[in-house]
Amino acid sequence: MRIRSVEFSNFRNYKSLKAEFGEGINLLYGDNAQGKTNILEGIYICSTSRSHRRSSDRELILFGEKEAHIRLILEKKNDLHKIDIHYRKDNKKGIAIDGIPVRKASEMFGFLNVVMFAPEDLALVKSGPAERRRFLDREICQTDPFYMDDLMNYNRVLEQRNKLLKDIVRDSSLKDTLDVWDEQLVRYGCRILKVREKYLKETEKTCSEIHSFMTSGEEEIKLSYEKNTNEAEFKENLEKSRERDLYTMTTNRGPHRDDFSITANGIDLRTYGSQGQQRSAAVSLKLSEIGIIKEKTGEMPVLLLDDVFSEMDQRRQEGLLKEISGIQTIITGTGIDEMTRNNAIIGKKFYIKQGTALEEE
Questions:
Q1: In angstroms, rounded to a whole number, what is the distance separating the alpha carbons of residues 237 and 229?
Q2: Strand-strand pairing, 2-11 and 302-305
Q3: Cβ atoms within 10 A of the Cβ of 311, count?
């Protein structure tokens, strides 16, 4: 799997753009705030239908314009495919794959698999449990449509149960209907717990190998799933927590409260890791997705790296570049110094300035 080209019309700060990418490393370089990240964002949207920045659709349209387009050509199993996304300020976005409209965002997952690291992904290590749950759910959904269905159903039931908890305050007779929602929450929640735990074990093995390679064997990374409840006791714990749930008007037990720890040589990086360690751990976690996607789909995903070298020493930079050898990678940076210093082989270079992309020889 590789991206042949991407085109923008009125997307972010690009009035018009067409970039054709090669195999290996494709470098987007230039000063800050020129539009490098916007190219990665457009590609990411073609994979998931949403921006990694969690921007609204209207924010993606060039200021002063009424609509925007993204067009991406993908080579997959020796066939070419086209992804079209059309934004309108006064309407919902339209998505089509090979001319066929996509009705639900979930239909896009798995068609174009990308692994992306952006500065925001430092939150994966530094921020609260919600970021790490989001990471697990997003990555599992790329290769497991059944998990996506269970997750959507779980979140729907959770929302209904929380609404009911608030309604019971006004009408206590509704309390008896909690059992119906508890049964569904346990059914979907147990499936989620099982898949998450299995996926995290697979991730730990790959992540540990990558991190050891990147740090020349000096750091050993460990991941540990921290369940709010386990499958066997989920129903019982919901019953025990019912009075608390009624008091707080929210559901306090379930996989929506889970977390996982990230340690390097026994140090919990969530709290005590340096910026460099946290960045390396986040990158290792992201890169671990590559092998898992390859194993489950039979194809290598596309790698998107945004400002990945910041706060990494040269040893970690060299380890990262060796690790991504042979993978189509689109990477941003302020210059080419990091690449030349680390003897990276660059396939294509694009100089980005004020919403233009000049391909260089």
A1: 7
A2: unpaired
A3: 16
For the chain, 361 residues long, the average pLDDT of each consecutive 10-residue run is 97 96 93 94 94 89 96 95 95 94 85 90 92 92 90 97 95 93 97 96 93 90 96 96 96 97 96 89 90 88 89 78 88 80 80 93 75
CATH of the domain at 27: 3.40.50.300
Provide the 10 A C-beta neighbour count for residue 200.
Answer: 17
CATH code assigned at 282:
1.20.1050.90
3-state secondary structure 229-296: CCCCCHHHHHHHCHHHHHHHCCCCCCHHHCEEEEEECCEEHHHHCCHHHHHHHHHHHHHHHHHHHHHH
Q: Within a domain: residue 118?
A: no
Both structure tokens of 19: 């970039």
- Does residue 26 fall inside a structural domain? yes
Last-in-domain residue among 243, 275, 298: 298
Containing structural domain, residue 317: 1-113+301-361
By C-alpha distance, which of 233, 235, 232 is closest to 182?
A: 235
Same-domain status, 310 and 264: no
Q: Which amino acid is at 83?
A: I
CB neighbour list of residue 103: distance below 8 Å, 6 or more residues apart = none
Nearest to 323 by CA among 165, 233, 216, 200: 216
Cα distance between residue 112 and residue 261, in whole Å:
29
Region of 224 (left: φ > 0; alpha: ψ -120 to 50; beta: rest) is: beta
How confident is the prediction for the chain on average, in pLDDT? 92
